[in-house]
Amino acid sequence: MTVWIQHQLTIAPGGTTSGGMSPQRPFRIITQEICDALPELAEIKVGLLHVFLQHTSASLTINENADPDVLVDLKTAFDRLAPESAKYTHTLEGPDDMPAHLKTALLGHSLTIPVGNGRLLLGTWQGIYLCEHRTGRHHRTLILTLSGDNFP
Q1: Of 28, 7, 33, residue with least CA distance to 132
Q2: What is residue 94's three-state secondary structure?
Q3: Which of 4, 118, 127, 128 gives the lowest tally of CB atoms within 10 Å of its CB?
């Protein structure tokens, strides 16, 4: 029988990640928080999880979950691609807002992950990251939509 389950998950502002990122702009692994918010995951034989972030100045990505240097390098690269020092027209919400929108446009605000035998089918070295692109401490809201067939 196919089921549809939807939960809202609020991620509180995080501290320093294992990669030493600033608490103001962490690239933070949230795989376990997502799994903890979905106890029904264990009942799904085959399905999909859609993760949607309801914000335009943060993003989601699946990336390396073992070497924290990857996150340091990702953040450095994104800061080079969309620097706060550039001349932007949209400055109403501060100098970090438009660069945050650009970084979100590059990474995206949603992910779809296959589910099998009661777990996310991520690769060995993959984790789900919430990428905060604004200075300051923001709560971020995710909509988790799980669909699939239950075990018989």
Answers
A1: 28
A2: coil
A3: 4
